[in-house]
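pasting for ref
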Amino acid sequence: MIERRYYGKTKKGEEVFSYVLKDGGMEAEILSYGATLRRLSVPDREGNLRDVVLGYDRVAEYEENDGHLGGTVGRFANRIAHGTFALNGKTYTLAQNNGPHHLHGGDGGFDTRVWQAEILEDGVLFTLHSPDGDEGYPAALTVQVKFTLKDGALTLRYRAEAEGDTIVNLTNHAYFNLDGSETINDHILTLGADTFHEGDETVLPTGRILPVAGTPMDFTGPTRVGDGVESEEPCVKNSGGYDSNFVLSSSPAAVLYSEESGIVMTCTTDQPGIQLYSGNFLTDRKGKAAVRYGKRGGLCLETQHYPDSPNHPEWPTTVLKKGEVFESFTTYAFSVK
């Protein structure tokens, strides 16, 4: 069952709608603004519904606040060094909107656009057209993301096709909090990753891929997030918490658990990496239902290709050539224990 509701207008006067998917005891609400996951309500061990993602009550709050809460991020998720990359012998210059680097598609990334929405029998399909030169990227690009809710799992399926050669890296930037506590420090996390990308003082990958063993980056077994989030490990210290890409080596990609609520979230994907971000720069702000969101109020598990991939040809490519189709999926399945 899918409900369409009027949500508000952007500063430009564009109408925004929300789409509510229901399956059993679960509900997911997605906005046409940014193809944004605004709400995801799942039952806890007592059978009570809990909203496990951060979000806002008004369009203006999404426009005014940073953090990309729940948005579909592109054209290129994560960082590109110094906002430049080369493709087919030509150098392209992008916005440097994260210190000296380009982040999440620039100043007007996909999570700031109003997408076209189509209700399907099994979900909602959001479509966005990005013209040639948009935010400095080459070639016109059509992007789609389909949200489905079935059998206790929310699945996002991405598709992109370009009219010329370009680069693409898509993800969703949901902040998860499985029990509504002030921080995610007590959440228990497991990642299917034996290695991670070393970051420099600007959180950009140095090019080195390091083993997690024996470091606060080791989530190969269930680990309390707060145990390492303030550690002296260089990548953690430089980021003010976790903000690193992990190289996926096994499935599931991630398992997140709250002992307080009993909710378990299992993430699977076909992407090669997952960015763990511990909400280091969330500032005190009003979220849904006047709840205050602060530092570490939510945790992101961004399934994607590696950051700065266009400048590292040895890594899995993010080049999308004319005539090719990019497709990927990520599923968040919920259970209790």
